[in-house]
Every structure is written in C-alpha cells, then in structure tokens.
Amino acid sequence: MAVAEFIVSFREFFEISLLIGIMLAYLRKADKPQYVPSVWTGAAVAAAASVAVALLLNALRMDFDSYEMLFEGATLILAAVLVTWFIFWMFGQKHIARQIETGMRHEVELGAKAGVAVFSFIAVFREGVETVLFLEGINIETGKLSLLGVLVGALAAIALAYLVFRHVVRLDLKSFFNATSVILILLAAGLVSQGVHELNEAGVMPTIVEHAWDFTPSLHSDGTYPALHPQGEAGSILRGLTGYDTAPSLMQVIAYWAYLMLVLAMYRRIETAHGRG
Q1: Which of 79, 54, 68, 66 is nearest to 243 (CA)?
Q2: CB-based contacts of 12: which residues, under 8 Å, 6+ apart?
Q3: Does residue 27 contact residue 35 with C-beta atoms inside 8 Å?
Q4: Do 174 and 34 form a contact (C-beta atoms < 8 A)?
Q5: Per-residue pLDDT, 243
Q6: Do the Cβ atoms of 227 and 233 come closer than 8 Å?
Q7: Closest by alpha carbon to 186, among 130, 129, 251, 238?
Q8: CB–CB of 231/129 below 8 Å?
C-alpha cells in the first residue's frame, strides 16, 4: 500500500466526511429529516463528477501523447498551484461549521431541496477535485497509483469522522489539519519539482545544470532496486511524499525550494494572524 495515496485519501475523505456530517447534524438539530436525501444526492453527484474529472484528465493525457512531457509538466504544476490554493482556502475558514449551517439554514428556510443538494454538491466537489488533482499528480510523478492506498485511506477517514461525530474519539481538528496541511504542501512541492523535470525533458525550460547532484544507487546484482533508489521501497515512498529525487536538475532544486519556502512562509503568516485573531 502506497503511503502518499493513503495520506492524501485519508485527509481529503476526512474533510468530505466532516462537511457532510456538519450538514446532517444541522438537519437533525433543525428537525428537518426530509432534506437529508438532498444532502446525499448532492454528495453522490459530486463524487461522480470528480470521477469524471479524473477520467477526463487521463483521456487528455492520451490525446496529447505526442506532447506527453509538456502536458504532464503543465498538469503537475497546475495541480500543485490549485491544491495549494485549496489548502489555504480551507485553512482560512475559521468558522467553516457556522458557514455551512448558515448556508443550509438559508436553503431550508426557502424550502429548496434542490438548493440543499447544490450546496452539498459544491462543498463535496471542491474536495473531490482536490483529491483527483493530487492523485493524478502522484500517478504522473511515480508512474503508478495504489488504489489500495486510496481505498484504505478513505475507509479510515470515514471511520474516524464517524467516531468523532459520535463523540467516541476526541480529536483536535486544528492540529490535525495543520499537520496534514504541511504534509500536503510537501507533496505539492514534489509535484512542482517533477513538473519542472517534465518541462526540462520537453525542452521548454532550461535545466541550468543537468544534475545538481547524482547519488542514484546502482542496482543490486540480481537487478533489484536498493531501498533508497527512487524505484526502491523507501525511495518510492519518499518520492511520493516529498518529491525525493537522487539526480534533479538545478532548475528542479530551485523550483522545489522556492515553492516550499514561499508557501510555508505564507502558511506560517496566516497561522500567526489567526492566532492573534
């Protein structure tokens, strides 16, 4: 089971579960059970739409086969940018539960079951697209995608969210999202680095220096990969989580650290501002 896929799936499905849980909790508190099916309908359509986005991205990759490296490089960098925006958007929602309840109250007061479904769709689809972008990036970056990691992460997230709402487990949500956001930022930095690599290979971005360093270990005598080889057991995990590369171009190194330092500085600044607020 791939660790990167598990972490992404766990974090994103936990967010989705919380959003749906908040909507259902409001309807239960307001004694409006007739709107519950609308919440699930919106969530189901959002899930289907997210799968459609994933299929579309894969179809586009096939259509752009002759420009594969250019397309993959652009996709990786775009995914990193959009995912980073999603992370900061979520982090900025200090009162997300109150905002969801306000939106739900508005639709319920109008008697709009369709409005509740649309509200649910938008909330879930945003997280679904973020999940698809991250997983597509991991797929391009590592050349494979562990569906088992995605499935286990999703099931674990749903189970944890259920236990939280049932008050069986107490979880500091702020600490949880802070920790997982940092991990996702590291993942996004890896997407940026790999995206630059693809653009280097496509010849549309200079490498500056082809290999800033190269400590790629040689294969074992039996042809298997050493643990720290990018295709090895530990190396593949590190690559998926942090963009680990044993022979990056200088442009990759610059892009990776420029992105990481900028985003972490912004993240820290927002966190400090919220702490004072």
Answers
A1: 79
A2: 127, 128, 130, 131, 134, 157
A3: yes
A4: no
A5: 85
A6: yes
A7: 238
A8: no
Domain count, the chain: 1
pLDDT of residue 231: 83
Own/partner long-range contacts of 117-121 (Cβ < 8 Å, ≥24 apart): 117/38, 117/39, 117/41, 117/42, 117/45, 118/42, 119/23, 119/42, 120/20, 120/23, 120/38, 120/39, 120/40, 120/41, 120/42, 120/43, 120/46, 121/42, 121/43, 121/45, 121/46, 121/49
Amino acid 10: pLDDT: 94
Domain that residue 138 falls in: 3-276
Structure tokens at 212: 């800033």
Q: Cα–chain-centroid distance for residue 12?
A: 6
**Which tokens belong to 130?**
């973020």
pLDDT tens by residue, 52-85: 999 998 888 777 766 888 888 998 998 899 888 8
User: Which pLDDT band, with edges at 50, 70 and 90, does 173 fall under?
Assistant: confident
In 3D, which of 253, 273, 177, 175 has the Cα closest to residue 209?
253
Higher pLDDT, 87 or 186: 186
